[in-house]
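Holo prediction — iron/sulfur cluster.
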Amino acid sequence: MAGELADSSSRKKEALFANREEFARIVPLLRERGYAVIGPTIEQGAIVYAPIDSVEQLPIGWTDRQEAGMYRLERRADDAWFGYVVGPFSWKQYLFPPHTKMSESLLTAEGWEFRAVEDDAPMYAFLGVRACDLAALAIQDRVFMNGPYVDPVYEKRRRRALTIAVNCTQAAPTCFCASMGTGPHCRYGFDIAVTELSDGFLLEVGSERGEEIVSGLATSAATELQMAEAHQRRARAVAQITRKLDTHDIRNVLLSQLEHPRWQHVAERCLSCANCTMVCPTCFCCSVEEVADLAETRVERHRSWDSCFNWNFSYMNGGIVRQDIRARYRQWLTHKLASWIDQFGVSGCVGCGRCITWCPVGIDLTEEVAVIRGEAT
Amino acid sequence: MAEKPRLAVLKFASCDGCQLALLDLEERLLELGESVEIAFFLEASSRIEPGPYDVALVEGSITTPHDKERIHEVRRQSRFLITIGACATAGGIQALRNWADHEEFLRAVYAQPQYIAALEKSTPISDHVRVDFELRGCPINPSQLYEILRSLLHGRRPRTPAHSVCLDCKRRGTVCVTVARGIPCLGPVTQAGCGAICPTYDRGCYGCYGPAAQPNLVSLTSHLISTGVSQQEVVRTLRGFNGYSPEFRAESDRLAPP
Ligand code: SF4
Ligand code: SF4
Ligand code: SF4
Ligand code: SF4
């Protein structure tokens, strides 16, 4: 149903199989239906999400090696299409863009004239959404679309977007979705979910829109053997997840440790550079600025990504509230893992590991939490 | 501010690149010409109007005994004194001589060093006179300059970013060169302003906009050294266009005591 977010959990359809050649047709099929297809592709030495017009642009035969503060692309031994995990960017780039012009106002003879800016973003088809990112989309849905204040930019883009999920068949050492209960298996929130097999793809349909797309491909009912292979590949990802975050009573644990010496310890390492919040698929902070011409008769309102790590982000009423890095790191971690639960009913972390990899000094939130819990030193 | 405030653009030891940023405003400069009187701007016009000025944009660092006197006269003549660029704000690239033997440099460069009247150190304007606002950058960002002038015209505080270059990197979709390629980058400790140009073109940030608010230099340099970057290279990275800014200077001096 167009305009409805995929609710794949309520649909239990049998899995289908498409060979590689057939599955490749999904990109032109989506394009014919007016979608701008965004998928993983290699740019600037990393796998990013960018517009693609053919599966040829996928990182076929490539993988990523990730550690705290380190990311490298490497050749695979095979020609897998989805043999890597998540990169520095996430789908929020497209749904909650880094810069948006929100409105403009003009001083006319009759006074100020206010105009909303119509968002002209295309209808997106996201190809290759991982389980952690499905969870992140669901979290940002709560942030931007629940409650009395709905964000029009996010809502319009999100309702029109089609989500093609990919089950992970391997994990990086930075992944901890299992601890956060978000992955690696895609269970909800997709229009189509894909598991890559040795000779093709296992497809699960999660919505009517997804069904309509899949019906355009020549598929067959998946055999028991194919189902078993998919299961075994997904199990490999589960087995590869080694990083853990103990979420038991985490809200109370963190909020009762606001004076723990570890906050000072991490403040000595943290650069307050904001990279972790930028790469996090759930962080939603922004700042809004009015930009005027010299005579101040034409004013535009711009919204840009911002972060609690910025020194003056907590400026209010004549002063900056979070004056040092200790206070800012504590804000980030306690918002993600504790006060987010009060605010939105879920954790703000989906365990994707991006903030660990893309921190220039390799700070790892799972390690910080373990120390604050008293599990490690 | 007066009906048509008077603007002066003055030069000390510098390359003129920041003054050019004013010319780079193009049609916005024409717009500006309607609101302010450009009284002194040798880069654009040989017409010289004497002071006093409402706004003086000062480019360049203090490197000669004569300039050391002249800056006081500029201060006396100007209601608002705004430094533009890394030279005026932090001593500039020419402040590299502050770590070297000045006499030796003079002998090496000039056939007749006895005719050269230069100070031993290149110093920022604020070491000599009170500065009302320091606009960072090597060179400055024309849009930020425009914002400063606009804010002065309307009597409000200028808005320039205090965040790191990293934030702009991510906003524009640039992949981190340090994490993905091991290239040392000053972005995490540098104030934004350029829009993250260098990482976007495969280089580490050179720190052109000077130290960000509360830069954690010790953590960044320790991490770079632990990942195999030599201490010498880290020191060289810190001693760039803003190498003589108090924060960058303190860190490079900690690693390589002068
Ligand atoms: S906090 Fe880190 S691991 Fe958790 S969702 Fe954000 S980027 Fe991913
Ligand atoms: S962690 Fe910081 S940047 Fe992220 S949503 Fe919370 S306050 Fe905003
Ligand atoms: S935790 Fe890392 S990425 Fe986040 S602000 Fe600190 S140094 Fe930057
Ligand atoms: S390339 Fe440099 S400025 Fe950009 S995110 Fe990395 S460390 Fe920061």
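READOUT: Chain B has two domains: 6-154, 165-255.
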